Amino acid sequence: MTALAGALMASGPAATLAVSDGADGRELRLSGRLDAYSIAGVWGQARTAVAQAPERKVIIDASRVDYCDGGGVAMLVDLLRQERSAQAPVTVRGLKPEFQTLLDQFNPAALRPPARAHEERLHAVQEIGRAALITWRDIVTQVAFVGETSSALWYAVRHPSTVRWKDVWYTCEQVGANALPIVALISFLLGIILAFQSAVPMRQFGAELFVADLVGLAILRELGPLMTAILLAGRSGAAFAAEIGTMKVNEELDALTTMGLDPVRFLVVTRILAAVLMVPLLTLFADVIGVLGGALTMISFNIPILTFLREVDSLVDVKDLFAGLAKTPVFAILIAGIGCLRGLQTQSGASAVGISATRAVVSGIVLLVVVDGIYAFIYYLMDI
Amino acid sequence: MPSDPIIRVEDFTAGYGESVLMQNINFTVGRGEVFVILGGSGSGKSTVLKHMIGLYQPMAGHVYIDGDDIVTAEGAARNAILRKIGVMYQSGALFGSMTLLENVRLPLEEYTALDPEAMDLLARMKLALVGLESFCGHMPSEISGGMQKRAAIARAMALDPMILFLDEPSAGLDPITSAELDQLILRLAKSLHITFVIVSHELASIYAIADRVIMLDKRKKGIIAEGDPKVLRDTSDNPWVRRFFNREAVAEAA
Fold first, then answer.
1. What ipTM does this complex have?
2. Using CB atoms within 10 A as the burial measure, which of A21, A316, A340, B153 is most buried?
3. How buried is residue A170: exposed, middle or buried, by Cβ count under 10 Å (0-12/13-18/19+)?
4. Alpha-carbon span A13 to A110, nearest angstrom
5. Kind of pairing, strands B163-167 and B5-16?
């Protein structure tokens, strides 16, 4: 029992229950104060006492109850609502009139616990089919959205004057400039960890210098673009879904539609354009910071920064840099697009916006992994 | 029946999913009328409004706005119809990231080739019409609910529509603010000859502003009364309609 509950119980006369068996049935004598704080103990006892006498009449004598509120009435209703044979009813007597009027507000029989609905268990095959159908519908929606967005983007490229550039620049600031600190932190950490973890075993072979090649290649080709994209999914993908989702809940999307303005052109195109402009720059920034992190770590392994950078320069090609950067516009379209789509799909209600933001991050990261795999395969085939 | 209707709703059936909310209803709105759609909670009055402005597709039927069917229109034809109407949503639905002036300017920016100064002036004049000229630079979150609704009316009027649709204008407002909004609606209707289509269940407001009402009922899935609200209150032969207008509680059917 918590201290608070203890204090509340001690503040008034507690409820007490005395059970006696007489000639005309079992008698439950309640006395004291019946409120939500005091009845916790006697409620269980009373229920047991009633249940133990299924074939006898039960009389609840409430004449010594000094106080009874909604809590006490709930207990009485609970005792009265039990299903029993007609020969053995439960009755309440002696309850003071002011409490009796409260009890009379309720019909105990109507408050019986609902019969447990027979839960229809689906066959495993049905479950799988249903899940597949939902996934399939989601894919169809995504394909339709990709089509709609592509046509809107194409229109924007051909008619740049129709784009709301003010919104694009504002989103650029949100997506790009404001993400610099977190991107710097993560890529710096990544560079340090990568360098340190590979330098320790490589030192056994006297090959610490080649850590530079490892760090350079890994960050430029894979980790820089991927980590930036994942950070973007967490920051901006979720933000887009929440912003657009809130607008939907507030009927602002309806307002746009009845003004004859297409929400895709108005909200989605500006966000995708901003992401496509910013993500390559952020990735470049992450690459530089990551390699720098690696270089700083190697100082403690007696490799000066300049030696490290020269080693990176000798093995890592511009081709590798562009192999990494070439992914970033696609990542940007995916993340911004899926964030906006989840926002547009928001249902009504307070939790809907949260669900949309979650779905934006999860689908965004899943798509990233898939697309990154496709890129790896293509690069392997093209020998890049 | 108005002789010169601006809106004609014909053989209109609508609902959600499988359930039909209203079946085969017909009504017209006259030019310059203040027309109120009313009904109990859940009778589908907001749904009818959202169909009339083309947000939802009806199961059957047509909605003619100034002669053109918004149900079948697409692309440019649809935009041409949308430009004749303005909508104030229940929550106001002002764009939260823009000031009031920017909210009202937005339709002007998108549809006109006016220079920025002219757009500013037009937007400020619309805000002045609803008494908010000194709040041009405020964000929607910085003003009260009643002001937000007035600003939403100003935005809906940005392109001088022929018809204004208002969804529950008095919802969530105190009686005085609500009465002020009624005065505003009457003033705009009389001075600018705008047709108003209003969804409401606020009796005081209906008596004050409505030229004509239709009353929807979810059990009948249709219109159960049509006409002047004061006349309906006193003479309707439908007991439910009389009770509604006299604000009497109905004992729940056991």
1. 0.79
2. A340
3. middle
4. 32
5. unpaired
Q: Which residue has the tokens 């409490």?
A: A99
Residue with tokens 């053995």: A88
Averaged pLDDT, A167-192: 94
Token digits for A7? 């204090």
Q: Residue A302: CB partners within 8 Å, gap ≥ 6?
A: A208
Query: Residue B46's closest CA among B86, B10, B89, B78?
Result: B89
A247/B contact by beta carbon, under 8 A: yes
Mutation to test the B interface, candidates A155, A169, A259, A271, most B Cβ within 10 Å:
A259
Where residue B150 falls (left for φ over 0; alpha for ψ -120 to 50; beta otherwise) is: alpha
Q: pLDDT per residue over B24-74, tens digit each?
A: 889 999 988 999 998 877 788 888 899 999 888 888 899 999 989 998 988
Q: Which residues of B touch A (CB under 8 A)?
A: 50, 53-55, 78-79, 82-83, 85, 87, 89-91, 93-96, 106-107, 110-111, 155
Which structure tokens are listed for B189?
């209707």
Q: What is the DSSP string of A143-208?
A: HHHHHHHHHHHHHHHH-GGGS-HHHHHHHHHHHTGGGHHHHHHHHHHHHHHHHHHHHHHHHTTT-G
Tens-digit pLDDT profile for residues B151-210 = 999 999 888 899 999 998 888 788 888 888 898 889 888 888 889 999 988 888 888 899
Report the C-alpha gap between A127 and A304 in whole angstroms: 61
Nearest-neighbour CA in chain B from A125: distance (Å): 26
**Nearest C-alpha in B relative to A254:** B55
